[in-house]
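Internal ticket #5521
Category: modeling
Description: The requester needs a full-assembly model to guide mutagenesis choices. All entity lines are attached below as received. Residue total reported by intake: 226.
Assigned to: D.W.
Attached entities:
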Amino acid sequence: ELKVEQNPLFLSMQEGKNYTIYCNYSTTSDRLYWYRQDPGKSLESLFVLLSNGAVKQEGRLMASLDTKARLSTLHITAAVHDLSATYFCAVVGIQGAQKLVFGQGTRLTINP
Amino acid sequence: EPEVTQTPSHQVTQMGQEVILRCVPISNHLYFYWYRQILGQKVEFLVSFYNNEISEKSEIFDDQFSVERPDGSNFTLKIRSTKLEDSAMYFCASSQDSWNTEAFFGQGTRLTVV
């Protein structure tokens, strides 16, 4: 059974600092997503990572995927308050499977 | 930009009542999904639907749940006899196909069972 674990689950940081959120998964996958969720809102797609070594960047966020280590990272550079949200990674287990298995989420709070 | 829309945004129902949550997926998408998120917890897969039938379902999706695509545009989730523990945010999602394409999520329906 595919399991997805994120750490940390809670992260409080100051503006201007850098930090990384980690997402580990238990079985083979070639497709991983990062989503952002604001309180009471839906899931906003940030990145889709489809292959080993994939790296994508958007603004202050950069995501990478290592399928051999079954690890994805979401790196935040020079954090700003607007990035405060909960971030989820989600994995599709095997080719042809359709369901996303989500991590527990990382609640990120960025303080001025 | 095309989006998945869900109605209602918030539904309050009494325990034991039936509820129907409605979704309009993106028009050229072929795969449809329901997920739920209990307050403060992770998002959990319920069911996927393709070609007018369920293609995969989770353990959560028991006999009290059903899905339907009654016409060419709507996709519904019915909960026959709601329990307190069904209180959650329910998200509909759709994707163009099942592999290598992204699922887009609706804004969610918050279901409160009292």
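Resolution: model delivered.
Comment from assignee: The interface with chain A takes residues 31, 33, 35, 41-45, 48, 50, 55-56, 58, 91, 98-100, 102-108, 110 of chain B (CB under 8 Å).
Ticket closed.
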